[in-house]
Design brief:
Radius of gyration: 35 Å
Shape: elongated
Order of helices and strands: HH
Number of helices: 2
Largest sheet: none
Helix content: 25-40%
Oligomer: single chain
Number of strands: 0
Distance between the termini: 90 Å
Length: 87
């Protein structure tokens, strides 16, 4: 079995590549600019802030309520019977 040999100086012919049309996209750029974005109204800005604060408050609240359940009790003594103490 022999491997194909490239001609000296690199490949002289252009090989097709998948999605080659993306490389040719530079030729088809349009000179038409998209319209400018509309500015958000005060109500939209307030709504975004309110949504963000609600999400942050929910995450903080879940941490505050969940931390006691995740912590293990430390320095708690288990009740022992008098027989275990040797009396």
């Amino acid at each position: 079995m022999t491997l194909p040999q490239l001609p000296l100086g690199g490949a002289s012919r252009r090989e097709p590549v998948p999605f080659g049309f993306l490389a040719d996209a530079e030729k088809f750029r349009s000179n038409v600019a998209p319209p400018p974005r509309q500015r958000a109204s005060a109500g939209q800005i307030a709504g975004r802030w309110l949504l963000g604060l609600t999400i942050v408050a929910g995450l903080v609240g879940s941490l505050v309520l969940g931390m006691p359940a995740l912590s293990t009790p430390t320095a708690t003594q288990t009740p022992q019977s008098q027989a275990a103490q040797g009396r």
